[in-house]
Amino acid sequence: MTRKEKTEFVVKKLEELYSEVPIPLKHNDSYTLLIAVLLSAQCTDKRVNKITPLLFKRADNPYDMVKLSVDEILEIIRPCGLGPAKSKAIHQLSHILIEKNNGKVPDNFKDLEALPGVGHKTASVVMCQAFGKQAFPVDTHIHRLMHRWGLSNGKNVVQTEKDAKKLFPKELWNKLHLQIIYFGREHCPARSHNTLLCPICSVVGKKEK
Hints:
Blueprint: H1 3-17, H2 30-39, H3 45-58, H4 62-65, H5 70-77, H6 83-101, H7 109-113, H8 120-129, H9 140-148, H10 157-167, H11 173-186, H12 201-204
Helix pairs in contact: 1-11, 2-3, 2-8, 5-6, 9-10, 9-11
């Protein structure tokens, strides 16, 4: 199959399997989504969704968040891992949002990525899931599957994102990145993956040793 044929097959199959794709992280608005995505670094969405209700009960906006100490935030979010760094980032970015943006989350990459603890992937998630701007966040599932399907060289997430944006129509990015994540979790795991039984790898995937 050509890369174009593979791309078309992937889009069609994912739409068949996941015509509806709910956002995995529970949130109420752009601020709570930003905090949830920040907490999800090296942590499962399932665990984050257990912790955020406890945190947001205390503070679901930057004005209330800065009233908490870094240690108080840490005590709540500790199960998510990387607690010291994440708690400081949450406290600092909340201060910055108040001081520079009237408490609102910016809707552009430059200002988002300037916030403590917010990298390009986190900013991409917020841009597409909170503001509906076209973006293609690449997580470990997408990075793995794009390589496995022969759609990217898989050397790093930056290159994978560039390849994905070239291959897939822009209007599909926001939904497609979630479809790939769900597919990776349910059909295409990193380990013990049976290529022959996989709905996509069995057709377009590279043969694995």
